[in-house]
Amino acid sequence: MRASTFRFLLNLWPPFLFSGIRLLRLDDDYTEAQVVLRLRPWNRNYVRTQFGGSLFAMADPFWMLLILHHLGKDHFVWDKAGTIDFVAPGREDVYAHFKLEPGMLNELRAAAANGEKVLRWFDVPIKTATGEVVALVRKQLYVRLKPRHR
Q1: Could you tell me which InterPro entries the record lists for this protein (predicted)?
Q2: Within 1-147, where are the H helices?
Q3: Which residues pair with 142 in a beta bridge?
Q4: Which DSSP letter does residue 49 get?
Q5: Helix, strand, or coil here: 10?
Q6: Other beta carbons less than 10 A from residue 79's beta carbon
């Protein structure tokens, strides 16, 4: 699927649409994505800052989606675990930038080539427009070559 079509459809996905989450940019080669979480009355917590669940949701699927696109149908790529560290209150719109390095994809392919499961952590800071870190999200992915390709 073309990146522009995927971006359009993902922005219509109800969990993102109704949370104020938008995929601003997705490179044509699926190596970079930029996401924004707009601060809205419906995604503020009791103390009027970004709701933690929305902060995690904005970062949740992107490592898996980018890597799955590159490894293709020959591999399982699933989210295994995730953590979030709240660093500062989010009192404005916040952004996350995901970038796949070519070496990272080669390492995953090589590690999964014999059919063993591969567990790898990926980090993304969530920042304000001025660069202040609001949260750090870590996602662990499970990657494995599908049985028919081993």
Answers
A1: DUF4442, HotDog_dom_sf
A2: 3-12, 14-17, 52-59, 62-71, 102-112
A3: 78, 119
A4: S
A5: helix
A6: 13
150: which 2 tokens? Answer: 């081993």
Beta strand residue intervals within the chain, DSSP E: 21-26, 32-37, 75-86, 94-99, 118-128, 133-145
Are the C-beta atoms of 67 and 108 separated by less than 8 Å?
yes
Cα–Cα nearest to 142, from 78, 88, 83? 78
- In one-letter notation, the amino acid at residue 114 is N
Q: Phi first, then psi: give them for residue 58, nearest 5 degrees.
A: -70, -25
**Tens digit of each residue's pLDDT (9 = 90 or more) over 118-138:** 999 999 999 999 999 999 999
Structure tokens at 106: 């080669």
Question: Which token pair is 19?
Answer: 């949370």
CA distance 134 to 33: 19
pTM, whole model, 2 decimals?
0.92
CB atoms within 10 A of CB 35: 25
> pLDDT tens across 32-46, in order?
999 999 999 988 999
Q: What is the CA radius of gyration of the chain?
A: 16
